[in-house]
Amino acid sequence: MLQNSQEKSQAYPRHRRPGYYTDRQNPEAVAAAAMYTFLPDNFSPAKPKPSKELKPLLGSAVLGLLLVLAAVVAWCYYSVSLRKAERLRAELLDLNAGGFSIRNQKGEQVFRLAFRSGALDLDSCSRDGALLGCSLTADGRPLNFFIQTVRPKDTVMCYRVRWEEAVQGRAVEHAMFLGDAAAHWYGGAEMRTQHWPIRLDGQQEPQPFVTSDVYSSDAAFGGILERYWLSSRAAAIKVNDSVPFHLGWNGTERSLRLQARYHDTPYKPAAGRAAAPELSYRVCVGSDVTSIHKYMVRRYFNKPSRVPAPEAFRDPIWSTWALYGRAVDQEKVLHFAQQIRQHRFNSSHLEIDDMYTPAYGDFDFDEVKFPNASDMFRRLRDAGFRVTLWVHPFVNYNSSRFGEGVERELFVREPTGRLPSLVRWWNGIGAVLDFTNPKAQSMLS
């Protein structure tokens, strides 16, 4: 049997792992070898999983990091916005893309204006001391816009505003809001129906701010025009004389439409200048309406050089128009004076009104109606009357003075300067005396 076993072992030898005999002496090595013997070839050790207590800590850390990042971004945005807000504020004035508003010392809004010809690109705005300027509109159109702060006295703050277009043919329009019903505004133009304070009815497109026949329409401007408005809230605005100014209004929103343009208008640009309009004005606010009005009057308006006779204010002015209209003559004037004295009224001023001349613009008495004007004046003065005559700047085309005025160039001329500019007024069609010409002044002397 032993022999057979040995033969069998030799015939079928066992294949043993390397290190079989030596590993028998190291138990740890034997155990490791046994373990790797039975593990599959594609086995990989499992990764350790985080504990349940660690997950909330990681989430809190990520959330905290996001909050810190958001706070930094918000602070940067706030800082930029704050710097921009400071850049767009001028003392009591706050500028935005669509307009500006002005507060008084108490923080109450006393003036508000909107840009109707375009919004500003606020990123194009910069400050240089008291001057705040912008170079672009929101749609990228170039312009020259600035607001300059001026403090002429302790109780008055003023802002010079200018919007100048770089493109010809455009109109510049700003809307000035009159505020609520508690704010009263005064000034502007003489109108056919005069409201005091200003009352806006309906809608009116901006029209040239020039004198016209006040009876031609309810929206026509009369013979008294001032580019000046005053508020009961101690705010005032004066539009510059250089502006090709047009005025309209919107009764619904209680706003005046201030517009500058050179197209479809009697205004013409100065010689050598492009027809790119500018709208410029000064807005001033003060502590009370009296002080702000006094400042504006001293700054922009000349005072009378002489005071009229006190009798002109104290006593009546008797006018022949009220009784006789155009049918006036020498006999009626003397009878009128006699009736005044008989009824024991003052022998104050007596005005000889319409149609004492042959035609409008003659400036000489009609010898048929007034055969002895010198004697009439003597008799009136002896009765204590001061006599005045109704005069006007119009010389109608059928007047004997019309040809003389054309030849001597005494009339306002049309834009080319070659012909007199004819106008229609309520007594016909005629030319207008140019009183900037000394020769025209002599016609009435």
Features:
single chain, 445 residues, Immunoglobulin-like, 8-stranded antiparallel sheet, 22 strands
Task: Set out the fold topology.
Blueprint: H1 2-11, H2 20-23, H3 27-38, H4 54-87, E1 89-90, E2 93-96, E3 99-103, E4 109-115, E5 125-128, E6 131-136, E7 142-153, E8 156-165, E9 172-177, E10 185-191, E11 203-208, E12 221-231, E13 235-239, E14 245-250, E15 255-260, E16 278-286, H5 289-300, H6 310-314, E17 317-319, H7 320-324, H8 330-342, E18 349-352, H9 373-382, E19 386-389, E20 394-396, H10 402-408, E21 423-425, E22 428-432, H11 438-441
Helix pairs in contact: 8-9
GO cellular component, one term: nuclear membrane
Family: Belongs to the glycosyl hydrolase 31 family.
Organism: Saimiri boliviensis boliviensis
Can you tell me about this structure?
One of its GO terms (molecular function) is hydrolase activity, hydrolyzing O-glycosyl compounds. This is Myosis regulating glycosidase. It is a single chain. With 445 residues, the protein is an alpha+beta fold. The protein has 11 helices and 22 strands. It is elongated and about 120 Å long.
